[in-house]
What we know:
With 315 residues, the chain is an all-alpha fold. The protein is built from 14 helices and 2 strands.
Amino acid sequence: MTMTVEKRGVTGKAAQAGHPRRRRDSYALFLLPGVLAFLTVIIVPFLMNTYVGFTDWQGVGSPSWTGLANYRELMDDSDFWASFRHSLFMVVAMAAVPTAVGLVLAAALFDYIGKHFGSKVVAVLRACFYLPQVLPIAVAGIVWSWILAPDNGSLNALLKAVGLGSWQQDWLGDPDIALYSVMGVMVWVQIGFPLVVFMAGLQRVDPQLHEAAELDGAGWWRRFWHVTLPQIRPEIYVVLTWCTVAALKVFGAVYVLTKGGPGGATNVPSYFSFTTFFEKTQVGYGAAISTVLTVIILALSMIGLKLQTRAEERA
C-alpha cells in the first residue's frame, strides 16, 4: 500500500512538472500563424528579390543569371548615388529634425502647458500634432501639392498677401528647392510620432529628481539636459531608429508630390527602384537596388536596437 501511494505521488509530481512544458508547447501553436505569415510576406519575397537581383530579366521569359553584374553597375550608377544622397536629406527631415523638435515640444507640453492649462489641453494639442501621422500619405500629398502649387497655391497667395511676393517660388518644380519643399512636408508629417513617444517617456521620469535639481538651483534647461534626457535615452534611440528607417524607405510622399522630379532632384532609392523595376522593366537591376536598400536598413536597425538595449540597461 505504501509503495502504491508513493508511486502515485511520484506520478502526480511528474505530471505537474510536465504541465508547464505542455503549456509552452500550446502557446507555441498560437505563434504559428504569425510565423507562417512572416515567412510568406517577408522572408520568401525577400529571397526571391535577392535571387532576381543576380539576373538580367525584363519581367517576362526566363531570367538570365549574371552574378554580380547588377551590383557592379550599381556602384558606378550616378543616379543611384544621387538618390542615396537625397535619402540622407530625408533622414535629416524625418529623423533628426522631428526628434529635436519633438523633444522640445514634448517637454513644453509636459512641463509648462500641462501644469498651467491642464491635461485636457495637452491631450488636444498632442492629438493635433499627431494628426498628420494618421492621414493617408496620398491625401496629405495631394493637399500639400495644392498648397505649394506655383500659380494658385495657398503658400504663394499668402506671401503675396503679406507683401512678400518676391518670395514666391515654384516650390515643387524648381530643381534647386524641390527637395527642401518635400523635406518640409515630411517634417510636418513625422513630428507627431516623436512627440507622442517622448511624452510617454517623460511620464516615467522620477519627479523627485527634478525637485532635487531645482532645490540645488538648476534652471529648466539644466534640469532638462542633465535629468530628463538621460532618463528618456531609450525612447530617443527608438525614435531615431524608427524615423531613420522610415526616411530611407520613403516612397509615397515622393510619388505623390514630385514623382522624383524635377530632373531627378527628389529621387530616392525606393522610388528609383520602383521606376527601374516597373517603368524601365529592368527587373534584375531594380531588385538589386531594393536589396541594397534592405541590407542598409537592416544594418541600421540592428545598430539602433543595440544602442537602445544599452540605454535600457543603464537606465
